[in-house]
């Protein structure tokens, strides 16, 4: 079983929302929703993302841009948005998915995810990171820096 298959297996069997693996070792798992696990990984151990494999329940454009920014090698996701697919294709990141959607829905399922909206006008990973960090700090009052 390769790293991507193993990360997928762990995500599904342990019901995590996020799994990051490197060289056959689990680096981070999380049950948190949204892109918080990505942001925590960037804050705490960003260098460990380079060349890593990620399994995540949902990959929207914001998560795809963060993965690109920190040089993630491969991604598995249960749900992939059209904008995320475009980003991953543009930056040649290998990915697998179960379900393809036009956009990621917000948690109330009555509109687009705020992170997809926030990053819709950029394909620059560093700009996306800055926008996401600012949103978490100013709107949600969560310090992920």
Q: Mind explaining what this structure looks like?
A:
The protein is of the alpha/beta class and 145 residues long. The chain has a single domain (3-138), classed as Hypothetical protein TM1506 (Cytidine Deaminase, domain 2, 3-Layer(aba) Sandwich), CATH 3.40.140.30. Helices cover 41% and strands 23% of the residues. The protein is built from six helices and five strands. The protein has a five-stranded mixed β-sheet. α3 runs parallel beside α4 and α3 packs across α6 (125-138). The termini are far apart.
Sequence-ordered SSE layout with sheet pairings:
Elements lengths: L2 H11 L4 E5 L2 E6 L5 H10 L7 E7 L1 H9 L4 E8 H9 L3 E8 L12 H6 L5 H14 L7
Helix pairs in contact: 3-4, 3-6
What is the helix fraction of residues, given as a range? 40-55%
Number of strands: 5
**First CA to last CA: what distance?**
35 Å
- In CATH, the homologous superfamily goes by the name Hypothetical protein TM1506
Instruction: List the uncertain runs.
Output: none
Domain count: 1
- CATH level-two architecture: 3-Layer(aba) Sandwich
- Please, how many helices? 6
Radius of gyration: 14 Å
CATH fold topology: Cytidine Deaminase, domain 2
Shape: globular
**What is the N-to-C order of secondary-structure elements (H for helix, E for strand)?**
HEEHEHEHEHH
Strand order of the largest sheet: 2-1-3-4-5
* CATH class (first level) name: Alpha Beta
**Proportion of beta-strand residues:** 15-25%
The profile of the biggest β sheet is:
5 strands, mixed
What average pLDDT do the residues reach?
94
Structural class, please? Answer: alpha/beta
